[in-house]
Amino acid sequence: MSNGTSVRYKVAEAARSAGVSASTLRLWESQGLVVPDRSATGHRQYSAEDVARLKKIAWYRTERGLNPAAIREALESEVPSDSSDAADASDLGRRLRSLRHAAGKTLDQVAGDVGVAASTLSTLERTSQGVSFKTLHDLAEYYSTTVSRLSGEERDAVPEVVRAGAWRTWPETTPGVTVQLLAEGRTMMDCHRFVLAPGAASEGAYRHDGEEFMHVLSGRLELVLDSDQFFDLGPGDSLYFESRRYHSWRNRHDGETILIWINTPPTF
């Protein structure tokens, strides 16, 4: 929500600026209305943007008498920031919000249908961050699309060489999971380079149509199929499986794990 050089406000300072109590700020956070950063010691830190948002929330609550769900909808309908960096980072979130509005659904309805907290979904739509790979897949399935399309991968492009280190990258929705594109354009395969930080995981099993192939370049990956087949993959190992089988994964290495991952047809 804010960059590392901006001013940070403590809970009491932010609450005073918004004209509410600190406990009210914690309540609004639990309702997904605002998501402050955290310090290294776990304390809430509010940016100037957060404080401005808090003032709007207070106004909607006192002057308009809106409930939390209605306040979220009102905030989402406002004109987004002109910051190009923020716009680039939130493309996935805007796509999800557009799909939800097109379906005539509220945040609470989609959250209930998919099985996530409304606050988590609100954060994802605003920041393109904060969910597991499984949740992102479940949302794509809910809207009858794919994670690749949501991430802006599908675009018209002529065949071209993708140079080493020049890969385009998905929005980092899940901490520690970086997905880089190895092929551009409307293809019959999703070709990705995954870079997984220590402990990074899918955080649940998912499945979809198609088949997939993975090849580990470095590190170590644990892949589980149908909850009872465990594969421990190291450098040079490959695995091919049907995507309709439930699959989950985790980096079991104490450093980065890097792998090539291909889905066909592009259903993830």
UniProtKB/TrEMBL annotation:
CDD domains: cupin_XRE_C, HTH_MerR-like, HTH_XRE. Residues 96-150 form the HTH cro/C1-type domain. Residues 8-77 form the HTH merR-type domain. GO terms for molecular function: DNA binding; DNA-binding transcription factor activity. One of its GO terms (cellular component) is cytosol. Keywords: DNA-binding. It comes from the Bacteria. PANTHER family: HTH-TYPE TRANSCRIPTIONAL REGULATOR, METHYLPHOSPHONATE SYNTHASE. This is DNA-binding transcriptional regulator, MerR family. The lineage of its organism: Bacteria, Pseudomonadati, Pseudomonadota, Alphaproteobacteria, Hyphomicrobiales.
